[in-house]
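ok so i was messing around last nite and threw this chain in just to see what happens. nothing serious, just curious
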Amino acid sequence: MSVSYERTWENRRKGGRSVTDESRASYYGIPAIHKPHWKWLIICYFFLGGISSASYVIASIAELFGGRDTRRIVRVGRYISLAALIPSPILLILDLGRPERFLYMLRIVKLRSPMSVGTWGLTLFGGFCALSALIQAAQDGLLSRANLLSRALLALPSKTISVLGGAFGFFVGGYTGVLLGATAVPLWARNALLLGPLFLSSAMSSASAAITLVLALMRGTSHQTIRRLERLDTAALLAELGLILAARRNAGAVIGRPVQHGPLSRILRWGVLGLGVGGPLLLQSIGRLSDRLPVRGLAVLSSVLTLTGGFLLRYVMVMAGRASADDPEATYELARRG
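result:
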């Protein structure tokens, strides 16, 4: 979205306002900070990285505490995690412009750089994710059991790897929100304590929806398995709903203008809160109250809506942050409120 601001000192008809008057709330109408260049590549990376990390976490929890009934969740969660992870470094490399810049990121760790921390976190998590997917493939017989690689994979401590990889999964799921809050962009900085939990809860809801969608389309999946994932999705969606409303209120009238007025606010209200959060919660409630309705059909529809809402949330947060960076009044308001 392109936003242009009039240089108020150029509007001579208004007159009567001194430099001091203008500097209290603005910098002559010119953006006081540079907005981030991030667009679709980073939005898609946030979305897929969240699904990958949370799918791995869900699969790890199911493996450690779920017993035999959750073997399908473990299997599908691991494969979805790897499938969603594979495009993530490609998206980062495309955003960086040149492939060698991705390798340069691995030479040092810059904790205040989303790209540096993301590159390291993604690399370490990717190792555990790929290893767990290979172990799962060996357990499923997709690799020849006589194969030396298959026997070596089956001998590895799968649960220990899941615990270590799950820790990195939590990190990748929430770090994007935390590091957005570490920037000078008014909307993100004002909600620095809320963005990490918000991105993590959204990642959990999107991942549980992705796993539910695949399992609902697979033959032999029990309704009990689908119900378990729906309960997780409900908890994540309620947390996401509370955090979105809290962030919107915490931003205030000036800093929160992009999410309170205009096209982005409508996408947040109808696309994220209505379609992506309210819709799945309503369908899941209807499914619990009525045994006559098709569980799989409701699960598929609910999952599609949740995934749509998860993507739109990241679109709104990135684009609204860019719009708030373009607004000099928001920057001054953030400086005053500290």
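not much to say yet. The radius of gyration is 23 Å.
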